[in-house]
Amino acid sequence: MMERLIEILKEIRPDVDFISEKSLIDDGILDSFDIVSIISELNDEYDIAIRVTELNPENFNSADAIYTMCQELKNKA
Amino acid sequence: MSMEKLTSFSKAQQVQKEYALKGTLTNNYLLPDVSKLLIDEGKLFYSKHSKNLYFFEDKGDFYQIYYHLNELDQFFDHFCDKPVMMEILYRGENKKPLEVINYWEASGFKQHIVRENMMATYDKLTLPQSKSKEVVIKIADSINEVTFVQELIVNTFDRFTGDILSFEESVTFMKQHQIICAYYKDQLGGFLQFEIKNNVVWIGHIAVDETFRGKGIANELVKSYITMNKTKPGTRYQLWVMQENKSAIDLYHKFGFIYGNKSSASMLRL
Fold it and tell me: A52 contacts in B (CB within 8 Å)?
């Protein structure tokens, strides 16, 4: 699942090294449009529902954090 | 269809929960902190029509729409007392969301301006030689310069997509040393205003007075903007540029900026 997640993220932002970057939001690497694009892809891929008004930007600071969030949402579903 | 003012963030969450579904087409990139601020300022409204939801941000003399579309045959027929615009974001021309553009055209909107995002990090940039020794760059520090900046912004930028600054906002940028002016033979010819958001140095506005174009002023402004903001090899720079402004795009390419994999098509109903 992590490998597929990295693939999804790279499709959206091919210029970003999602394996090493740990401050994607804090360092301004991802902006709100990137986050919304990622949400849309994750919702489709994992059949979960992340809504923009409900999201916590800190969950998008690294691929690991995004992965953990998806796992938690899948377990809740 | 009537427009209702959002008075709490929980209400925004509640209405969005009903309409933001799997497969919903949306341009809503208002993150929670921005939504909360707009609600506190009384600037965020919404309306529902069949299975579609529209948020309206009151931008003063027009509204900006953030949509959640689930039924593309249920057109937007909302009466508004001011012009209405929206930004449709997409990644590359081959991913332009034509079905959404068609929906809004069928709802009475016209395609307006397309802008492209460009980005760079300092270590990927090259700083070209100065073309003219007659261009002098300085950081704005006078009301005379702010007045020039303000007039050039109003006369150069699109009122719906150009983030027109108020005089007070321009003064604030001047006080933060975020406006650079260019003089050509001692005459004020252009400016660049920038701001730093989340460690990214954004060009907010750059303009050269018509009389002074073709004299290397934009080149010097961009060069100064890059060098004065460099804090580390990985310093990030970004900007939006109109797709039809080929000379500006060429200039940024010359410095080493690349397409940021983001475009924005604005649509407008007057």
Answer: 16, 20, 26, 28-32
pLDDT of residue B1: 64
CB atoms within 10 A of CB B76: 21
Look at residue A74 in the predicted model and tell me its pLDDT.
80
Contact across the interface for B31 and A52, Cβ inside 8 Å: yes
Q: Is A26 on the interface with B (CB under 8 A)?
A: yes
What pTM was computed for the model? 0.86
Q: pLDDT (tens digit, 9 = 90+) per residue, B80-91? A: 889 999 999 988
User: Please, are residues B189 and B209 in contact by the beta-carbon 8 Å criterion?
Assistant: yes
Q: How many residue contacts between A and B have a Cβ separation below 8 Å? A: 68
> Distance from A52 to chain B by nearest Cα, in Å?
6
Distance of alpha carbon A63 from alpha carbon B33, whole angstroms: 22
